[in-house]
């Protein structure tokens, strides 16, 4: 959560549907408009890791007070990117502690001189804990590596003759039992084996803890009276689309709001006034998932215009939000989108690639979406943390359905079920819902992945977390992804959809693909009999080294991956006629993990390599997904 300069917790205030939340203010994606400008700060920043023993030299010497280069040697660091893999220094790759980023920015004169302009610094994500200074003045702190935060820096940049500002960001990647994801620091005290002060960061999740400024950093402007947030929910009444809107304004209590909904041709199809209301769209085009309709992903544009009178004259602010009209519902055995049964045939992903680590990258984004569409995938889960906003926007535009997951991965220690942890997890869900609530592509929230949901405190923890998420957003189902035994899972009673991960004939019965059908069928039957809720096979897969071939198949070969998938598909094809509503392969692409004897340079369960080249299983899955699309829909789709 973002804290003000004094580090004080933000005050309680209403955000969605009138329920009390800890978060203050909105987090609208910064879009240009006649009243708003943007200045992207991507590119090279100065960088220094604090290698001092206690990692606190930067604070002791106040590196934020003067240009970073004056503190000692700095490196050029690209933003967005993880810092770990861009250099040749092994110590930086595995660094744990504070790193420092700095960038000098020249601002347009109007931004520094027009007091009617509000200047905001927005950081797409900083993993994990960040402190921000502008011109040496503390402006923000934020905990959590996967969600954006902002600071209003108007006063600082408008207070003197300077037309430039110096942004310093200190980031700490240390994970503790109360962070999300959790981790532990292990000090090795045996001086016969380890040097003095030796410690390692341990985690309970299976991906590398990349760190740095992973997503775009930018400055943008609004007027001082401005549209702070918009909440949209949509529905259908026969052929009429319903768009319920609520607009939140900051800076004045006296203003007028006009709202217009435009179709893709730019024609106004509905309009209204005031800060909330319902727009009705006769013969509306619905937002359909990819491969569920000939014209998927129809997006309207909601144009919001704010006008106000001030002593200095009239003020206006303008924001345009893409809106998809669609409904989501869950029955005992179906997942419905626009009232029709939806079957998830998709993938689990990671934000991960060579060199840039978890850094956002446009070519990678476009390549991944081209691969998804080639594959015939209609959905993915943001395993195991929220992805960049730009990813979510493309899902809206392409009709790729998203299960939006929090960074609640690896919650296995009893300490991570404490009130401190729960409170933080609730705040993270608030930040996630605040950021992603208006994306039609998001059809379900996932609060966690494979927590130790059999531990005693897990019942209360998940009951509270899921209830809070539903309060925040009553329009979407909520789940968490389990690998617990159906009888021992204390969270399952509270979810809307059972998402279950299993690795038959991989982590058990090595090499024995002949047991998969029986074990998988038993899994589905037991979960369904116990809970009568729709089930998604949210992970399954096999480690596969691209280019390893062996027939008859052996583990790690491309043939084994294909063979294992085929066994799963036989059962999925039976159960999808009953209550199984989806299958998501683990994983879309190979990805980096911590080093261990189980991982040969990362996790290799991708159907694509880390460089996004297909293994044999990608072709098998492509056949299946296009077949599924054509079998379950009314019209025929020609493969890309
Ligand atoms: C699952 C985890 C996932 C791992 C996967 C694996 O949810 O994060 O990467 O196992 O072992 O249990 O490949």
UniProtKB/TrEMBL annotation:
<dbReference type="InterPro" id="IPR013783">
    <property type="entry name" value="Ig-like_fold"/>
</dbReference>
<comment type="similarity">
    <text>Belongs to the glycosyl hydrolase 2 family.</text>
</comment>
<dbReference type="InterPro" id="IPR006102">
    <property type="entry name" value="Ig-like_GH2"/>
</dbReference>
<dbReference type="InterPro" id="IPR023230">
    <property type="entry name" value="Glyco_hydro_2_CS"/>
</dbReference>
<comment type="function">
    <text>Plays an important role in the degradation of dermatan and keratan sulfates.</text>
</comment>
<protein>
    <recommendedName>
        <fullName>Beta-glucuronidase</fullName>
        <ecNumber>3.2.1.31</ecNumber>
    </recommendedName>
</protein>
<feature type="domain" description="Glycosyl hydrolases family 2 sugar binding">
    <location>
        <begin position="39"/>
        <end position="223"/>
    </location>
</feature>
<keyword id="KW-0732">Signal</keyword>
<keyword id="KW-0378">Hydrolase</keyword>
<dbReference type="Pfam" id="PF00703">
    <property type="entry name" value="Glyco_hydro_2"/>
</dbReference>
<feature type="domain" description="Glycoside hydrolase family 2 catalytic">
    <location>
        <begin position="328"/>
        <end position="629"/>
    </location>
</feature>
<keyword id="KW-0326">Glycosidase</keyword>
<dbReference type="GO" id="GO:0005764">
    <property type="term" value="C:lysosome"/>
</dbReference>
<feature type="signal peptide">
    <location>
        <begin position="1"/>
        <end position="22"/>
    </location>
</feature>
<dbReference type="GO" id="GO:0005975">
    <property type="term" value="P:carbohydrate metabolic process"/>
</dbReference>
<dbReference type="InterPro" id="IPR017853">
    <property type="entry name" value="GH"/>
</dbReference>
<dbReference type="InterPro" id="IPR023232">
    <property type="entry name" value="Glyco_hydro_2_AS"/>
</dbReference>
<dbReference type="InterPro" id="IPR006104">
    <property type="entry name" value="Glyco_hydro_2_N"/>
</dbReference>
<dbReference type="Pfam" id="PF02836">
    <property type="entry name" value="Glyco_hydro_2_C"/>
</dbReference>
<keyword id="KW-0458">Lysosome</keyword>
<dbReference type="InterPro" id="IPR008979">
    <property type="entry name" value="Galactose-bd-like_sf"/>
</dbReference>
<keyword id="KW-0325">Glycoprotein</keyword>
<dbReference type="InterPro" id="IPR006101">
    <property type="entry name" value="Glyco_hydro_2"/>
</dbReference>
<dbReference type="Pfam" id="PF02837">
    <property type="entry name" value="Glyco_hydro_2_N"/>
</dbReference>
<feature type="domain" description="Glycoside hydrolase family 2 immunoglobulin-like beta-sandwich">
    <location>
        <begin position="225"/>
        <end position="326"/>
    </location>
</feature>
<dbReference type="InterPro" id="IPR036156">
    <property type="entry name" value="Beta-gal/glucu_dom_sf"/>
</dbReference>
<dbReference type="GO" id="GO:0004566">
    <property type="term" value="F:beta-glucuronidase activity"/>
</dbReference>
<dbReference type="InterPro" id="IPR006103">
    <property type="entry name" value="Glyco_hydro_2_cat"/>
</dbReference>
<comment type="subunit">
    <text>Homotetramer.</text>
</comment>
